[in-house]
User: Fold this.
Amino acid sequence: MNFTYIEDLIAQAQEKNIAVGELVIQYEMESSQLSRETIWQRMQSNWQVMKASAQKGLTNQEKSASNLVGGDARKLVAYAAKSYTGSTVMRAAAYAVGISELNAVMGKIVACPTAGSCGILPAAILAAAEKNGNSEDEVIMALFAAAGVGMIIDRNASISGAEGGCQAECGSAAGMAAAALVILQGGGAPVIGDAVALALKNMLGLVCDPVAGLVEVPCVKRNGFAVVQAILAADMSMAGIKSVIPADEVITAMKEIGQALPKSLKETSEGGLAVTPTAKAIEKRLYGLQAE
Assistant:
């Protein structure tokens, strides 16, 4: 059993008449030679860490060592009642920011698919599960489906900011989250492809330009924005909106864009926000470097 493309993932799930997540479990059983129970328990353990990081992130007041991030998730929670977006979206954004802030203070997180994008997938799933009343088994199955999407993106493009820019990190995480959200809403396999495509294609070209080389600015807040992208992509696809460009072609485009991006915009802190006057002043304060 193998799936190289999103198209394969969907077709094989339909052919076998099983959930996408179940297909990913079977693939993992074959490739790892581990039992279904062991694989399930490992994902269950990951989910416990994700939930704990989300809850801790909402209450965290600790600032990062740089003093650049920390406490913004609490502000989102406090403001939620006045928001334009509604409680579920604000909850997801707060979770995403909080988890990413926790990462910045060396808290325990799950890199899904990377540490820089660690808040997006768990935030989306937790907010959705709270809204829908999904069971833990449903959540874990959605996580397996998201993992399958992430594997395909990594195989055909990249999940590394150093290789493909932030589109490869936050973009990939948004695509994975959109797939999971469709499943938690009861959507079928074909809808997943549109959700992934819609989420990912609207983050194409996003550069990786961390201020002072830290996974803090703009990374933390990007997690909050990316989870909203994932939610809207899932809602659009569940509403019957199709992506004109198929998911696999979007992934190929992301790879080509990543290759075209200059080195300065791929995690080197040599371009973008990282070389603004404020960013250079921060770098000088932290490292004693001369601002250019």
Remarks:
- The chain has a mean pLDDT of 97.
- The chain has one domain: 6-262.
